[in-house]
């Protein structure tokens, strides 16, 4: 002990920074307002889902339902958006929380494996979403500010004029950069900060990690195991619900068939971010970096194509993402093996 | 494993409701569904209905057979849908002569069937390699190909729809032998062979032993790693076959859609069929019946005017019920 160890989540943050710097150096407009907004706006949904997944995985569980729960929430939010921003937001969120509660009940009361319980909820949520949406996308209201949640830029009204001047300098650039963040990015950021505080500084956070480290041991120690497991699935459902609200708001419609494969994308983000699937440890910051890393690959491919040197279709992004996951899991396996040997 | 029964033979004589439902529940559900349909659904007892329902489950059952073997070892394979896409996307390149010039059509069709299945099997070996060599959990190891596999299929076709009209190839799905679609024969043969292998051969016993208790299996000299390699390879090849059937049915290959969501359908069939997710006990016939029950429930609802999405909700309930019954027996 005592020697400096590179944790997997630090490594992924480093890779993310390197890729961002590489992009900024290589491509014009990579850190420009438009590109940053597009990347953050779209990926904040995945980041939210990945955050909920991170909580679940830290207890040693898994939540396959997040994608279709997000789709369900987007439909509910779109229907309710006609009554105003707040009903739309709360409706979508509550739909997610309800689905999460259903997962939690099946897992803790019926004692069914999370994998199967959430698989069933996935089907049920997907069916409910299609029923509520009558098999088509549900357009949101454009008169109630609901679309601002996904399409707006929260702090753009605060933007002082001088940051856009030619002589604004680095400070102006940084301030302008941050003020141009889209609303969903702030929602995701707030959720991640709250998540990090909960995990690191609350009793519940310690319980989450303890349950993941050893369920039986935690039970014997008198920790509220079932309540902890219950709550993480509710949190995951809530995050998926929020992602659904943003989805509806961003695309102007509730999308009952969106969300296919989101769950696996979220799992990949969590794993790439350095959280072990066996539970008991994990990194909230690493998960955010993992989600952004998987998202940024698409942007880099796009820009690289724009340079004209290579021409790779958009389909390469899944190949590259898969490769990333491959490298990360193999490295993790080697790291944990050498840690055991030491 | 059947230890509970062997230790207490007198339990056999008493009627154990949970064990009864566990063992015969799927078959019972199937019989009830058929009886209900005979009474209620118009035109149910026709060969048309039978053919429709069987062709709907064919690919799910074929993939489900591979999945059953994987789950029997305590694993899981999320990559099946992507492997279907790879096989389905590659096959037309051979029999349309896009890749290599063909001496005649039948050589092309043979290549277009054999090579994609072998490639899907190789990807299955890759899954096995990750799982055994690096001790990565199966769900994560196969997630790699779940994500990358469809990308590989899309990249190799540039995401384009490949339309073809080769009746000789399409015969593997829509041709009929004795009035039964050829794909149903393929399904039945695969089910019969797999059931024989699982229950009557050393390999089958070893598969179950690995899933029952891996450490014990290793200590008793069972080549655990080789068994795992083999089941993931078989699962990959089953996915390949299913991918070919899908494109033969559609007379088109769309890498974006072939096998989408198949992993969940196959797992659902396996679970409803009564195979333990933790491994060690598996039933191929159960998987066939599980897939049939899920399909027949959907058909029953649709035929009686219930919208398709509602059938999804019912399917969810079925899965929970099946697993809950399993638990009752274990408890």
Describe the structure.
The complex is a heterodimer of chains A (342) and B (331). Chain A is mostly helical. Chain A contains 14 helices and two strands; from the N terminus they run H-H-H-H-H-E-H-H-H-H-H-H-E-H-H-H. Chain A has helices at 8-26, 33-58, 66-80, 85-109, 114-133, 148-151, 169-179, 183-201, 203-213, 215-220, 225-251, 262-272, 284-307, 316-341, and strands at residues 138-139, 253-254. Chain A has a two-stranded antiparallel ribbon. In chain A, helix 3 (66-80) packs across helix 11 (225-251), helix 4 packs antiparallel against helix 5 (114-133) and helix 4 packs antiparallel against helix 11. Chain A is globular. Chain A starts with 7 loop residues before the first helix and ends with a helix. In chain B, a hairpin with a 2-residue loop joins strand 2 and strand 3. Helix content of chain B is 75%, strand content 2%. The radius of gyration of chain B is 20 Å and the shape is globular. Chain B starts with a helix and ends with a helix. The interface between A and B is large, with 49 and 46 residues.
What percentage of amino acids of chain B are in beta strands? Answer: under 5%
Backbone CA Rg of chain B = 20 Å
In total, the number of domains of chain B comes to: 1
In the CATH hierarchy, what is the architecture of chain A at level 2?
Orthogonal Bundle
What fold name stands as the CATH topology of chain B? ABC transporter involved in vitamin B12 uptake, BtuC
The low-pLDDT segments of chain A are none
Described by strand count, sense and barrel closure, the largest sheet of chain A is: 2 strands, antiparallel
What sequence of helices (H) and strands (E) makes up the elements of chain A? HHHHHEHHHHHHEHHH
Q: Indicate the low-confidence ranges of chain B by residue numbers.
A: 1-9
Strand element count of chain A: 2
Order of helices and strands of chain B: HHHHHHHEHEEHHHHEHHH
At the first level of CATH, the class of chain A is Mainly Alpha
Question: In order across it, which strands form the biggest sheet of chain A?
Answer: 1-2
CATH third-level topology of chain A: ABC transporter involved in vitamin B12 uptake, BtuC
Q: Can you name the CATH architecture of chain B?
A: Orthogonal Bundle
For this entry, what is the oligomeric state of its chains?
heterodimer
Spatial sequence of strands, sheet with the most strands of chain B = 1-4
| Range of helix content of chain B | over 70%
The residue fraction in helices of chain A comes out at over 70%
Quick one: overall form of chain A? globular
Note the main sheet of chain B: 2 strands, antiparallel
